[in-house]
Amino acid sequence: MNQLIECVPNFSEGQDMSVIKLITDEIEKIEGVFLLDVDPGKATNRTVVTLVGTPDAVVDAAFAAIKKAAEVIDMSKHKGEHPRFGGTDVCPFVPVRYITMDETVVYARKLAERVGKELEIPVYCYENAAFTTERRNLANCRSGEYEGLPEKLADPHWKPDFGPARFNPRTGAIAIGARDFLVAYNVNLNTTSVRRANAVAFDIREKGRPVREGNQVTGKIKKDENGNEVWEPGSLKACKAIGWFIEEYGIAQISINLTNISITPVHVAFEDTCVKAQERGMRVSGSELVGLIPLQAMLDAGKYFLRKQHRSVGVSEEELIKIAVKSLGLDDLKPFNPKEKIIEFILEEKETKHKKSLVAMTCRGFADETASESPAPGGGSISAYLGALGISLGTMVANLSSHKPGWDDQWEKFSEWAEKGQKIKDELLFLVDEDTIAFNKIMDAFSLPKGTEEEKHLRTEAIQLATKYAIQVPYRTMQKALESMAVIRAMALDGNTNSASDAGVGALCARAAVRGAHLNVRINAGSLKDKAFLEDILSNGMKMEQEAERLEKEILELVERNLKG
């Protein structure tokens, strides 16, 4: 699979969407790039654009967008709530898939050099792309903002990393960097006071606030023996925050940048903000996501709030996201659509736009497709789906047991089983489609030309590789379906006895999935020449089938015992 970089340019225009469209049209012209999100803010007069693609394509798309922005945005006329110093204010690169941060830095600097040289815009490299420690911090690069640029550019200490040290009133300057995934996140307050919102922002942000003598608002800032200001850090690491008033909504917000959500996740920032706001007599009414968020951040938030309620976290991704949205109040100001805000969902839709997904079909549609004259989906996909249904039943029993009245002291145990079940279910559902993809790879290999000796060799090699993959997929189905039987057995043994029959049906499905997938392994093995590979696969496959048969018998005996009371 290709390397992928995300790029999140912020343009100093959030009111005239025709201007933004001129810029995003340039991005969409570049092959190898997906435009994922365009998020304008009227009060900030700023639009956050998110695109993703292969590294060189992202560099080309970002350059084209910056060039167009220089033509259509006049910074001498710009006003907005957010700090800014250029028409394209910042342009960070973020590693997404199969690419390191060091590699990402190379592409960020490549863009920076090109913008400075070809567009003659002053460029400051920040975060991981910075050439000096001082310039790692975006706030340092952007200090003084647009209005302070003439003086800043005249200072040799602030000579741009690329481009002229010359003030262009139309374009301003730009910061180009490479960073980890940043979540831009606003928390809504039931106040119109920017001063009080700022007080909460200072409470939580890592930088904190200066320590003052006497009065904590108007007192003189304390200094240490070296004459440096003394600061009291805030409660959250990897967090930047300020307060502002959003006229569009008529409320004050705390604007938060979470620069490393593995250190401070979104739900932790939200909860801490709620506490700090309440201590100052305010209430958080909800929150707002600016741009996109990784799926895992939403799943982690959903699980956090479910655990607070002593409820099972072993529920579907959809349910976890729903809990996260409601708990964080992400729909407080406007509807929150996960398909438009979660980066994996958008990327998946873009990458699979022209592919037919079996798991996205209705039950009838899947059955009709299987019953058609097409050879795929076949037994491999059906085996994986049987396995998914089996573990879904086991997971259902775990969730029912977790919430059973009188079993409150056991909810965590059953929640853990349900969480394991959900993971197995998701992988088996992935294998439903993957088995058909594997079959199509074989068909594609057989369709390759076979005229010359070299073509024959390449065709044979492609067929062998595709066949090996067509064995590995159902073999993986066997492994996951067998793994699911541990969950189902635990539910037959300790779960809610009212659902004993469901555990029994789950066992029947799981064993059928193992056996059915093994049939697919064996039928594809006949034409593979790699005998060493086959020896292990076939030997282990037989052992897994025998173990599935043993577990099915054991589970059904437990179920019968429960049915008899």
Give a quick precis of the structure.
With 565 residues, the protein is of the alpha+beta class. Helices cover 52% and strands 14% of the residues.
The fold-level CATH name of the largest domain is: Four Helix Bundle (Hemerythrin (Met), subunit A)
* Known CATH architecture of the largest domain: Up-down Bundle
Order of helices and strands: EEHEEHEHEHHEEHEEEEHEHHHHHHHHHH
**How many domain regions?**
3
> What amount of the residues lies in strands?
5-15%
Oligomer: single chain
Radius of gyration: 29 Å
Average pLDDT number = 93
How many E-type strands? 13
CATH class of the largest domain: Mainly Alpha
Number of helices: 17
SS class:
alpha+beta
Shape field = globular
Residue stretches low in confidence (pLDDT < 50, at least 5 long) are none
Q: What summary fits the major beta sheet?
A: 7 strands, mixed
Distance between the termini: 54 Å
Fraction of residues in helix: 40-55%
Could you name the CATH homologous superfamily of the largest domain?
A: Formiminotetrahydrofolate cyclodeaminase monomer, up-and-down helical bundle
